């Protein structure tokens, strides 16, 4: 049931930070557009941000700095191995 | 696609895979708790990248699968009532109860609609004011907030012909039960990425501290999963179990406070029955009395009878990780996705469905 793909915010409509006035965002991934509710999102997104969506609701606004750090760590792990000539087993 | 393709990179996955081959020095058993992980591991062929010392075991992380037969029977009974429209996620439709499924009820004339979001069910209720729309509320921590928010919206908009049949569950209590099962020897836990985005990585600390279990929160792309497995192997071999957050772009230590607050406002913890695991204290959610008018169980007085599992089906043991689909005599013969005997073969996140679809049979005999 989980859709793991972050979708990009292309439009934000109405609403504020209050529980009872949730905003809506229009998100896009590879040309597929969807309307998502912002009732549950941990940080109000801006246009250009990426959201994780579940059952029509944004549940997380992605942190680009974290995403870059996350990837860098994996690449470092991979690079360290490529330099290691021995079979460490 | 941004934040997807980078983590799907084949060279990166291959390098992480060979890193694991060099790293591992002893057998390590890892349970992937989440059905979405089970599917991702098969879909991306990750098992073929793993050294033979690493054993992956699937756990109770498919919400449809852990819903006991008695609850399915209550769903089917509700569907047969006059004036009721059932709204449900698609995975539920073909799950067999003791006496047929929602699919058979529909063939018999019941009005059952598949929805993508609980909000779709509420909108349906607004469009059909003369009918009672009941949403079958199944799911873990990621899904529950969407249902809680929908109930708040129903309250706000005064839609009176909408209710939910609450069968929601929470993850940590059954994990603790599993870890006490002597039959199941698991060294590490691949913790579910999106459940964790709500409850936070710290929710597993007790498993590392009190049960000596290595924990790593993982995303769903190949590099995410491999990186988490590397973290688990390191912890297990060093004998230092902790909770590592390997999905920091989505998961924080304390989770999504706003979603948690909305869930707590609408739901309260109750004991709940899990297929295969029995009744577990504090593992289910019921509507608070303030929102009773949206509770299908009281509103339509539904009773849940004790469960009778489908004859011969081993879903119960599969959900506990003590049995693999290929160990079930019905797997692939009497039980297939086209003619499923148990829920693990129906759901898109079910372990039997994943093995059947991606040839786990051939690779792991
Ligand atoms: S193969 Fe079918 S019958 Fe066997 S455990 Fe899985 S779902 Fe149940």
**Class computed from helices, strands and strand pairing of chain A:** alpha+beta
Count of discrete structural domains of chain B? 2
Q: How would you describe the oligomerization state of the chains in this entry?
A: heterodimer
- Report the CATH superfamily of the largest domain in chain B: HypD, alpha/beta domain 2
What do the pLDDT scores of chain A average to? Answer: 78
| CATH architectural type of the largest domain in chain B | 3-Layer(aba) Sandwich
The arrangement of helices and strands of chain A along the chain is: EEEEEH
Highest CATH level, the class of the largest domain in chain B: Alpha Beta
Instruction: Give the CATH topology of the largest domain in chain B.
Output: Rossmann fold
Ordered list of secondary-structure elements with their pairings:
The complex is a heterodimer of chains A (89) and B (365).
Chain A: E1 7-13, E2 24-29, E3 32-37, E4 50-54, E5 57-61, H1 64-83
Antiparallel strand pairs in A: 1-2, 1-4, 2-3, 4-5
Chain B: H1 5-8, H2 10-23, E1 28-32, H3 35-43, E2 54-58, H4 63-66, H5 69-79, E3 84-88, H6 102-107, E4 111-114, H7 118-127, E5 132-137, H8 144-157, E6 162-166, H9 172-179, E7 188-191, H10 193-199, H11 205-211, E8 214-217, H12 222-238, E9 243-245, H13 257-266, E10 267-274, E11 278-287, H14 296-299, H15 315-320, H16 351-357, H17 360-363
Parallel strand pairs in B: 1-2, 1-7, 3-4, 3-5, 5-6, 7-8, 8-9
Antiparallel strand pairs in B: 10-11
Bound molecules: iron/sulfur cluster (SF4).
Residues 313-315, 318, 325, 328, 330-331, 335, 341-342, 344-345, 352 of chain B line the site of iron/sulfur cluster (SF4).
How is this structure best summarized?
The complex is a heterodimer of chains A (89) and B (365). Chain A is α+β, with helices and mostly antiparallel strands. Chain A is built from 1 helix and 5 strands.
